[in-house]
Amino acid sequence: MSENTLNQAFRRMGYSTGEVTAHGLRTTASSLLNESGKWHPNAIERSLAHADANAVRGTYNRGRLG
Predict the structure, then answer these.
(1) Is 56 in contact with 27 (CB distance < 8 Å)?
(2) 31 within a domain of the structure (yes/no)
(3) Are 30 and 44 spatial neighbours (Cβ–Cβ below 8 Å)?
(4) What single-letter DSSP state applies at residue 63?
(5) Cα separation of 42 and 48, whole Å?
(6) Most CB atoms within 10 A, among 5, 16, 57, 64?
(7) Which residue positions in the chain have pLDDT lower than 50?
(8) What is the model's pLDDT at position 11?
(9) Are 63 and 32 in contact (CB under 8 A)?
(10) Model pLDDT, residue 1
(11) Would residue 35 count as lying in a domain?
């Protein structure tokens, strides 16, 4: 499923582009999962389907531990 498909679904639900986006949810999930300390950071990056975890980890994890 493409990011645009998800974004269109959010718009049909009444969310504006400033409120929620598919990519923004990935950022939120990465930050919350990393901050929880319950999962290994590499597992979180693999679940987000990033080929090179080190190149993108800082982009998505905006939490204190990132």
Answers:
(1) no
(2) yes
(3) yes
(4) S
(5) 10
(6) 57
(7) 52, 66
(8) 96
(9) yes
(10) 79
(11) yes
Using an 8 Å Cβ cutoff, are 26 and 48 in contact? yes
Residue-wise over 5-35: b if at least 16 C-beta within 10 A, else e?
eebeebeeeeeeeeebbbeeebeeebbebbe
Task: Supply the DSSP symbol for 40.
Answer: -
The two tokens of residue 23 are 């990519």
> How many residues are present in the chain?
66
Long-range contacts of 19-26 (CB under 8 A, 24+ apart): 26/60
Domain count, the chain: 1
**Longest Cα separation, the chain:** 35
Tokens of 56: 């993108």
Residue type, 61: N
